[in-house]
Specification:
Blueprint (H helix, E strand, L loop, with lengths): L4 H7 L4 H8 L3 H10 L4
Length: 40
């Protein structure tokens, strides 16, 4: 899954929305994965 890369990019100063757009994933999907992890 690509979502674990997003926080790493955000820590480097890249906006979450921009990181998701470049990686081709949805911002809402990132937040669901972050908040619920493997329970989804």
């Amino acid at each position: 899954m690509i979502y674990p890369v997003v926080p790493e990019l955000a820590a480097g100063g890249i906006a979450v929305a921009a990181a998701c757009r470049v990686l081709g994933v949805s911002t809402s999907g990132f937040y669901v994965a972050r908040d619920y992890g493997s329970r989804v």
